[in-house]
Amino acid sequence: MAEGGFIPHVDHRAPGEVSWDNYCYYIWEKCHMLGWPEERIRAFPAFEHWRP
Asked: Which end of the chain is more exposed for a tag (fewer CB within 10 A), N or C?
């Protein structure tokens, strides 16, 4: 991204057939790509019981 890349995102609601587990994985990986430390990601309530 620092070299002119892009940030992947859902530009509307995620389709209904996307499982919660897959969506959490997407958000988890996106946060890692953005350079967030794991402690910050785990602080979100959605990840309280979810682990990659």
From this structure: N
pLDDT in tens, 21-37: 999 999 999 999 889 99
**Are 22 and 15 within 8 A, CB to CB?**
no
Name the percent of the chain in helix, strand, coil, to the closest 5. Answer: 40, 0, 60
Range(s) of the domain holding residue 48: 18-52
Token representation of residue 50? 């979810």
Total domains, the chain: 1
Identity of residue 52: P
What does the pLDDT average to over 4-10?
A: 77
Tokens of 46: 């959605």
